[in-house]
Specification:
6-stranded antiparallel β-barrel; single chain; alpha+beta; 6-stranded antiparallel barrel; 3 helices; 12 strands; 272 residues; 26% strand
């Protein structure tokens, strides 16, 4: 009896493990592994949930939040630009206060040539009206519909503006260059000008009032023939216009088809 008890004490653990293994094998056979799979899924489900990432609903919610944030940023930017324009407009005398207008569109093929505004003849705008923005001259209204206006920018290759150097009164013609810069052709062979000089519209301009800021000289080429030229950095942000101010054309402009008398016989006769 004592020997039997000792044998049981030594073998009971082994017999228990064998019984457990046989029982597990029988359960697996009867359930075809479903119980084991369930136990595995129960253990690994929390880890899978952590690794799976956001659900489609969460993706949609995040996309909507991102869209709203982008719209808020855009509205804040537009509001700031409008506030800046209104501050610029209110500096003008009430009698000559301009018409604020928003840039409605511009073609990728004509980015530096023209813009379309959201105001037209119903707002009192006419062809020949002057367009400015914070910084200075933007261009000229070419044509209007009841609710829109098309503006020829001073950066257009066809644009020509009579200008003067504010410091010395040296004069010339500013031509568009399809960029944020323009080319100034001086009337004089050796003009009294230097890099950094400010450029504004001159009294010889046919279509624009005198004294409107345009830009500043970025570089000079005094050896250019037949006349010296300068690269002018335009003040208005032509590349990113959103809001502008539209002014009636000055009363002293020369009617279409007429030419002003040139300052001297050696100076060009055509400037806008």
């Amino acid at each position: 009896m004592v020997l039997l008890r000792r044998w049981w004490d030594r073998k009971s653990l082994q017999l228990g493990l064998v019984a457990l293994a046989l029982g597990s094998a029988w359960v697996l056979r009867e359930t075809q592994g479903a119980l084991l799979l369930e136990m595995y899924q129960g253990i690994t489900r929390p880890v899978q949930m952590l690794q799976a990432g956001p659900t489609p609903e969460e993706h949609l919610r995040d996309a909507r939040v991102s869209e709203l944030q982008a719209r808020i940023v855009d509205l804040e930017s537009q509001n700031q630009k409008l506030q800046n324009l209104l501050g610029y407009v209110t500096k003008e005398p009430i009698a000559s206060r301009p018409i604020p207008a928003r840039v409605l569109g511009r073609s990728a093929d004509h980015w530096w040539q023209q813009i379309t505004l959201d105001r037209g003849s119903n707002s009192g705008i006419q062809a020949g009206f002057i367009v400015k923005a914070e910084g200075g001259l933007v261009g000229l209204v070419e044509s209007v519909t009841p609710n829109t206006s098309r503006v020829l920018l001073i950066s257009d290759l066809k644009s020509q503006v009579g200008v003067t150097i504010s410091r010395t009164s040296a004069k010339g013609v500013l031509r568009g260059d399809s960029s944020a810069e323009a080319v100034l052709e001086f009337y004089e062979k050796v003009p009294n000008a230097k890099v950094g000089d400010y450029v504004s519209t001159s009294t010889y301009s046919q279509r624009f009032p005198s004294g409107v800021a345009v830009g500043k000289i970025k570089s000079l080429d005094l050896k250019k023939l037949p006349a010296s030229i300068a690269k002018v950095e335009l003040f208005p942000q032509i590349r990113s216009l959103d809001w502008v101010a539209v002014y009636p054309k000055p009363e002293n402009t020369i009617p279409e088809g007429e030419n002003p008398q040139p300052p001297t016989n050696s100076q060009p006769q055509n400037s806008n």
